[in-house]
Amino acid sequence: MFTESMVKFAWLFSARDITLRKFRSLLTILAISIGVASFVSLRLVSIGVHIKVTEEVNQLINADLIVYGEGVCDVPQFVEQLLRAIPHVAKTTSIVMVRGWIESNRGKYFANIIGCDAKSLKEFFNVSLVAGRGFKEGESNVVIVHEDVANSIRATLGKNVIVKPYVMMKGGKGYTAEVIGISKASASIGGFSFFTYCIIPLKDAQELVGSEGYVTYIFIKVSDKEFIGSIKKDIKRLFPKALVTEQKEITKVINRIVNTITGLMVALTLIGVVVAFFAVANTIMMNVREHIRDIGILKAIGARKSYVLLMFLLEAFLLSVVGGLIGVILGILGSYALRELLPQIGVSFIVPIVLDPFTLATGFLLSIGVGILASLYPSWRASLISPIEALKYE
Asked: What are the beta bridge partners of residue 335?
């Protein structure tokens, strides 16, 4: 049982030990701070990447439900009219979407080929144009090109390009269209955009893939998201073989990819944590060796093992608290510095930094946990020292 005087003595002993051995304590605190700072900064940046990627996906495709089949373009277009009759379905549109490339005399660039009507450009695709215009109803042989694609093949407004789906790689002339619009580039990392595309009129896309009257997807907007579950059931009742997904599920897939990347980055912080662990263990072990005489005296006057254990655990705790606080502050500053460096490695978007309380608390508790765990063995060894052993050492 610890008394107030015992805890106070242990506190003074630990604080005095740290102040008398400033350089050693500083190195230990620095090791803890670096480990915590690297963890906090990478976590805060990864949270910002998640937010930005989700925002980009939601901005590009504005649909609550997506209905599709098992093939590339095998959903009958008349199905859209039947789906529109389902209660709580507000709007629908038919979409053709296939992988392919855009070609000019300057080269070619792989991208998603999207076919939709003029109305869907505004209602289902939040396409932000940096130049030109969108196409009109009844217009054909026109294309809106993604900015990354336009820059790569130098596709300027008014220039003709050739659009080919992947299924035509072994032959076919493709689709010759005039560039009438250039859309703003979406989020990208290392020069790879999450979603590069070109948009052409729906009928032209159907002719291009040889599937007149068929589409790849039917996008649905609902009047109230509370009824999404019942709408999905109605769709499956009408078309048992139809595949139905929600937009948030697409976001989850993309976030899983981002999670993998950021997870590997955060895993690198374990190196700093391991360094901090051994730094604390080494510091406490050296302190124990230097205080063998003091431990012997305390044991001789009746101090228990738990009391000696408390002294050194408390010292590790103080080092961890100071290191954790400094590490959290450095981590916050580091996240802003890391954000400024991201464009140099190909990240095209500005990552928002959100001071997530859970991440900050986890970083601080990580420092304390590492400090306590690292000091357990040397502190336990100190508690086993007997007065006779202390005299032998002297």
From this structure: none
Question: Has this prediction a pTM greater than 0.70?
Answer: no
| Distance, CA of 68 to CA of 208 (rounded, Å) | 19
Give the Cα separation of 391 and 292 in Å (integer): 9
Residue range 320-363, pLDDT digits in tens: 888 889 999 998 998 888 887 776 655 555 677 888 889 899 88
* Beta carbons of 363 and 328 less than 8 angstroms apart: yes
pLDDT in tens, 275-312: 888 888 877 777 777 666 766 766 676 667 777 777 77
